[in-house]
Specification:
Keywords: Hydrolase, Metal-binding. The chain is α+β, with helices and mostly antiparallel strands. It contains six helices and 19 strands.
């Protein structure tokens, strides 16, 4: 299944995507995060009772989980990216958090802050938790996954480097993206087989197999669940491969008018144009 959250006629809806239609299920559960707590089988059973679909062309795609309790992002988790940044190997994954309002959905504009000209792209695989757990063994970790999506973990590099904490550079309003939908785990199988591509203005800038992660999806779930309970709807952004703009000669940063895309085999393509933030704190996107 492809599960999506949309804005339709001014109302947030969610449901199952089939072609260019969405079969809504918000009459059963208020949002996708809540539905995931009851499991994918319950969602499939409820879908049988839906008789009317909404045309996606009349809707705006939102992040699949607009209200996650946690978004945990992994830094320097591909060997190729570790090598281009000159970082040393570490025994544990580097983890920082992203706030829900730092992401937009597919087709929406990401916002380049007026405070920086070092707005960098990062294509990633997002893992969405479906079954709660603490101290999850790596061997059991994929049983806790609801599905996968595309994620643009874009960074404002100078703010990221202000201290040894990445949080400021990763949480400018509407600087990243998540979508276009969640593809359920049963349709993906082993996430290590997925191919990840990042494109800027149609030109390929990043490519890697997810199998080249330093810390695999099961290892990330096992480690994260050792210190916090993972809950339905929680999101793990698994890291970006080599090719980021700050390590190019000359550097390649995003600017207004650019378009950044994240494509993952078996999932789809997340597309976001870039706009400038308006000085004074308000950006040019209707909220």
């Amino acid at each position: 299944m492809r599960l999506a959250t949309i804005l339709h006629a001014g109302t947030q809806r969610w449901g199952v995507v089939d072609g260019q239609q969405l079969w809504p299920l918000d009459h059963v559960w208020p949002d996708l995060r809540t539905a995931l707590g009851d499991g994918l089988d319950a969602i499939r059973a409820a879908l049988v009772q839906v008789s009317d679909a909404l045309p996606l062309e009349e809707a705006r795609l939102l992040p699949p989980i607009p209200n996650p309790e946690k978004i945990l992002a992994i830094g320097v988790n591909y060997r190729s990216h570790r090598e281009e940044t000159g970082r040393e190997a570490t025994p544990y994954p580097a983890i920082f958090v992203r706030f829900p309002d730092a992401q937009v959905g597919d087709g929406e504009a990401i916002v380049k802050p007026f405070l920086s000209d070092r707005f960098d792209f990062e294509a990633e695989l997002a893992v969405v938790i479906g079954r709660a757990g603490r101290h999850i063994a790596a061997a059991d970790a994929l049983d806790h996954v609801a599905g996968y999506s595309c994620f643009a973990d874009n960074a404002v590099r100078d703010f990221q480097r202000h201290t040894n904490q990445a949080t400021p550079g990763k949480n400018f309003d509407r600087s990243g993206a998540f979508g276009p939908w969640l593809v359920t785990a049963d349709e993906i199988g082993d996430p290590a087989q997925l191919e990840l591509v990042g494109r800027l203005n149609g030109e390929e800038v990043q490519r890697s197999s997810v199998g080249l992660l330093i810390f695999s999806v099961p290892e990330l779930i096992a480690y994260i669940s050792s210190f916090t309970t993972l809950k339905p709807g929680d999101v793990i952004a698994t890291g970006t491969p080599a090719g980021v703009g700050m390590k190019r000669t000359p550097p390649l940063f995003m600017k207004a008018g650019d378009v950044f895309q994240v494509e993952i085999s078996g999932i789809g393509t997340l597309t976001t144009p870039v706009i400038d933030e308006q000085k004074g704190g308000a950006d040019a996107v209707d909220l």
